[in-house]
Amino acid sequence: MRRAYRILPVYTGDVSGVAGALFELGGMTVMHDPSGCNSTYNTHDEIRWYDQDSLIFLTGLTDQDAILGDDDRLIHDIRKAAEEFHPNFIAIANSPIPYLNGTDFDAICSIIESDTGISTFHVPTNGCHDYVYGAGHAYLELAKRFVDTAVRPKGDCSINILGCTPLDFTAEGEVESLRKKLTEMGFSINSCWAMGDSLENLKNAGAADVNLVVSAVGMLTAKYLKRTIGTPYVAGLPLDGFENVLAEALRTALATGEDQIPYLNREGTGAVETVFIGDPVQMGTMAFMEEEKRPEHRAVVICPLEADSELLKETDIETRGEEEVERAVRNAEEITADPLYKHICPATATFHSLPHFAFSGRLFRKQIADRF
Amino acid sequence: MDTSGAVVKVSEANYPLPFARELEFNAPAHGNWNIVHIGYLIPDSHEIYVASDNCMRGVVMTAAEMNTLDRFSSVILEEDDLLEGNLEDVTIEGISDVIRKLPKKPPCVLVYLVCLHHFLGSDTDRIYGELEERFPDIDFIRCWMDPIMQKHGLTPEQKDRKAMLDPIRPLPVNPRSVNVLGGDLAMDPEHNDISRVLKDNGYTIRELPTCRTYQDFLDMGESKLNLCYYPSGDYAVRMLRKRLDRDYLYMPSDYNYEAIRNHLKELTNMLGIPEVDTAKWEEEADAALQEAKNVVGDTPVTIDYMSVPHPLGLARLLLEHGFNVTTVYLDAITPEEETDFRWLQENAPDLQLASTMNIKMRVMPRGTEEILAIGPKAAWFGGTSHFVNMIENGGCWGFGSIPYIAGEMIRAYQEEKDTRDLVPRKGLGCASCI
Prior knowledge:
The complex is a heterodimer of chains A (372) and B (434). With 372 residues, chain A is of the alpha/beta class. Chain A has helices spanning 14-22, 37-44, 63-68, 71-85, 96-101, 105-116, 131-146, 174-184, 199-202, 219-228, 243-256, 280-293, 322-328, 357-360, and strands at 4-5, 28-32, 55-58, 90-94, 120-123, 158-162, 188-193, 210-213, 233-235, 272-277, 297-303, 317-318, 334-337, 350-353. In chain A, the strands form three sheets. A five-stranded parallel β-sheet of chain A has the order 12-11-10-13-14, covered by helices on one side. In chain A, strands 3-2-4-5 form a four-stranded parallel β-sheet, with helices on both faces. Chain A has a four-stranded parallel β-sheet with strand order 7-6-8-9, with helices on both faces. Chain B has a six-stranded mixed β-sheet with strand order 1-12-11-10-13-14, sandwiched between helices. A four-stranded parallel β-sheet of chain B has the order 3-2-4-5, sandwiched between helices.
């Protein structure tokens, strides 16, 4: 049964994804949930909580609030907190019960915004999705609210990095290394969504010539910026051995205005099935490099996340649930994945551990290295 | 900064809720046990949660960090399940599928249903009836992960603790056997008066944390007395006593000497054994406190509710012995603490009560002065590396607990701990592989 997981955990959920995405932007994120969402988020899904004071709170929804529809309390509490902290914006994410109740978040946001004068928006989570969905929608809502679509590309080879959260970029200093690497490749960084950057800077995303999607989280925003400003996007990671391919794709996008996903251009004709499980952009990049390095290998990406199918090759596999992953890996001879996947991988396959914070949380965090 | 609403002098605090219920902050101090840790107390059991992604994440990662994923399974609820009215079927089929896939059938499965099951009016009798019919050799324990219900009536933790004792069936009474139930930590044999009294009188002590097999757990059905000393477990033990028709005693963790003497008297009377002469224990407690005071001096001391069930009682004890207790971290005052609260209002009016959940606590300055903290939350809020890393009174009780706490205070004062590493760990006392 697809929904039954004998032993694997689930990935970070949508509500945590929202909080993590917006963490560094000076806003206030409110999780409309009874309890647990905030604790889960700050324990397992967030590496910055102990040291950085970000305004992420929980409403403490009760059965009576839910049954009686006491949205006034929610509005009052958020308004009061906003008066205390004066955040740059207010984002509300919700858990299953408010979704079930049909809580009118648009109306609630409108009232709060009108009362406080602070931009307030709802990220349409419901606790049933993964972090790619949650963080992706958080950035999308942020872009809709704040990006000045009248600003046009500068024509100076500048890029927006889209899809950076500690869930996919966990090693200390990795995002700085990523920026440095891209700069060395000849590109200037217009903005980074959203680590080590500010809301003010993100508003100016329209000035970039190309958007670089570095994880599936960035795809919704990339498509939005394409639609509204016309900026092309490129997906991939500038890992050693792939940076030239990526640089070429970025220049092609600049020159033609057409989107590029260069890691999809792999042959897939080798006899040895090698599987990469995880984020399609990151694993796709590795799959490309694998085939380049070992032509006898046929690399397949297994994507257990709610990612845009465009980020996958036709021969890659989208899965939902433990059973489907187990089926997808049964003929693999080599597997690269988070160590927890080892529980369901064939013993005959060679397993390469690549811890992913959004899956195994703190368990292997110390082993996660800066890839740039 | 303006601390109003987040910190209040005890003399000005409302009882039982000193702080308004508003948006909540969650501090990165997680030493307390959650429902996953508690459920694992039943030996050889398997836990199955039926929840949506975001709700599942916290519990499954708790199991992963304990390195016990082989005792944990999930049934993931999807959007359609919320809308199509088939939640019972998904629950039954999902749990059945998981059980069939397990390499070995467990004797007992703790099933955790969630808020959604309440709100969709799920027929839990049908769910468990069907499961029991399909798997007659398994005891299904009816647990909840329904935090939406936790602010009125019984908390999910109280309900789960009760459900966990449901498989215990009455056995012929063994007059020399006593169950000590309700808490998570085994009694500290040196620093727990209950343990000392029972052992000195030759009783067999049965506790959940010391059960090694499922049969050990079921053997609790023979005990003459069911004793509880941890508040959130009391409902469970009362229900067990009623069902088994056995003796019952509740002995909350007091620090007041007279109260401790009275509790011990109740215990010895109920068992029909000689009264305990506590004079020596009391002298030891006084001496330990004096020794700690000599070392700690006037260093500000803070206490959190996670470290001991009665933080106000501990504050009172320490104040009475000359310590400079400045702050108690709590969000509510339990009825068991009302007497101590009133005493503190009269005798230590400037003592601060600080919320652990108020949103201002997110940005409250930390580490501005040297303090000695008792409890992981107090350590984080105080920004100190000098702290007693303890939950649930460390399994201690009565006069025996006082030298233990005093000794830990001395150790904490003299030695630094790695707060950054220790306090975010979940379930103090459980395995942790982070």
